[in-house]
């Protein structure tokens, strides 16, 4: 570009001379070297200086864009890791709490009013069903964290988590309003204990859907890479 010094003109024992500008006038450069941009400026006059400035600006802009791109990629990777493994942490933590008696009692109002899950209390105890839910949530968390070596398995776990959060969000509509919204205020004042607990699952649902999509894409890329490797091996064996 415009960084390495170059020497132009005819050498003699006094340095470098013989450089002419656009009009044919001779220019004496002295004994020092000129960068390529300086050479353009000397050779082509005003237009050369403008071209040199534009070239320097283009190089600086390109360098800044590369640095900015690297920063954005790094931030995106960090954010993706927080989203995926944070999702797994939340699922595993809450799943483990479902083995306790206080958590089993805490989710009872949600389960008993849900058309999708109220049947469970007819076939098993409140504590048993809570432990069953906890087992499922812990299993999904384990599947999600396998992204590094089994992206397809991680995608399955993420899709399972997404289904879990869809069911959880349905509690906002099936649980009595007096429990979801603050008494005396109503909609949209969510109650601190239940309504605000449920609404956060919108973000967790988005995280699960993103995690599933990213893991599926990684699995497809890995499958294509394996196919190319097998083709290369077959071609080498034929030769």
What does this structure look like?
It is a single chain. With 239 residues, this protein is mostly helical. It folds into 2 domains: 1-81, no CATH class; 98-238, no CATH class. 70% of the residues lie in helices and 6% in strands. It is built from 8 helices and 6 strands; from the N terminus they run ββββββαααααααα. It has helices spanning 36-97, 101-112, 120-123, 126-144, 151-174, 177-180, 195-199, 201-238, and strands spanning 5-6, 10-12, 15-17, 19-20, 26-27, 34-35. The strands form 3 sheets. It has a two-stranded antiparallel sheet with strand order 1-6. Strands 2-3 form a two-stranded antiparallel sheet. A hairpin with a 2-residue loop joins β2 (10-12) and β3 (15-17). α1 (36-97) runs antiparallel to α4. It is flat. The protein starts with a strand and ends with a helix. Mean pLDDT is 78; it is low at 3-32.
Helix content: over 70%
Number of helices: 8
* Coarse shape: flat
Question: Which strand order does the major sheet show?
Answer: 1-6
Low-confidence stretches: 3-32
Major sheet description: 2 strands, antiparallel
**Helix and strand run:** EEEEEEHHHHHHHH
Rg over C-alpha atoms, rounded to the nearest angstrom: 33 Å
